[in-house]
Design goal:
With about 80 residues, the protein is α+β, with helices and mostly antiparallel strands. Helix content is about 40%, strand content about 25%. The radius of gyration is 14 Å and the shape is globular. The protein starts with 13 loop residues before the first strand and ends with a strand.
């Protein structure tokens, strides 16, 4: 009998969809992170994909952010995200 193996990276990834009206706010935050902490931005594996007016943001490695910064980023993105 095979065992189900957990995805150990599940809590380390973040994915969200940002609609057009919040797009500029999301870009401003990502630009701020990139300017102030370029090594963290690079190590986080942030990927941005544009589809029409919607923007999809994927962060592969949330563990590079300090605990307090991670909570702030997650709260902020969760406040502007959309569920599609």
């Amino acid at each position: 009998m095979s065992q189900i193996k957990p995805n150990l990276n599940f809590n380390n990834q973040y994915y969200c969809c940002v609609v057009g009206e919040n797009r500029e706010r999301a870009i401003a935050l990502l630009n701020k992170i990139q300017k102030e902490r370029p090594e963290i931005y690079r190590n986080a594996g942030i990927e941005i994909r544009q589809e029409g007016i919607d923007m999809y943001i994927r962060i592969e490695n949330m563990s590079v952010f300090e605990a307090e910064s991670r909570l702030i980023i997650l709260r902020w993105f969760n406040s502007i995200r959309t569920y599609k």
